[in-house]
Amino acid sequence: MGRNMGTADRTLRVIVALVLLALAYTGTLTGTLATVAWIVAAVFIVTSLVSFCPLYRLVGMNTCSKG
C-alpha cells in the first residue's frame, strides 16, 4: 500500500473533516446528515493520516508528488 495522497490533498481533507465535525457536534447538522458527517470526517482523517485513499487507487488517481 503505497502513498497516493499529496500534502495539499491531506490538508484539505483534515480541514473539511474538522468543519464537518464542528457542524455535527454543535447540532447544525442533525439526524442522518449528522451521522454521515461523522463517518465522512472519520474516513477523511484516517486516510489523511495514512496518506492513502482506496478510492484513488480504484480510479487510478495519485496526488502524491514523485520527488
Q: Brief overview, please?
A:
This protein is mostly helical. The protein contains 3 helices and no strands.
How many helices?
3
| Number of discrete domains | 1
Q: Tell me about the biggest sheet?
A: none
The gross shape turns out to be elongated
User: Approximately how much beta-strand content do the residues carry?
Assistant: under 5%
Distance between the termini: 18 Å
Description:
This protein has helices spanning 7-25, 31-50, 54-59. It has 67 residues and is mainly alpha-helical. The longest helix has 20 residues, at 31-50. The two termini are 18 Å apart.
Structural descriptors:
single chain; 67 residues; mainly alpha; 3 helices
Task: Provide the fold topology.
Layout lengths: L6 H19 L5 H20 L3 H6 L8
Helix pairs in contact: 1-2
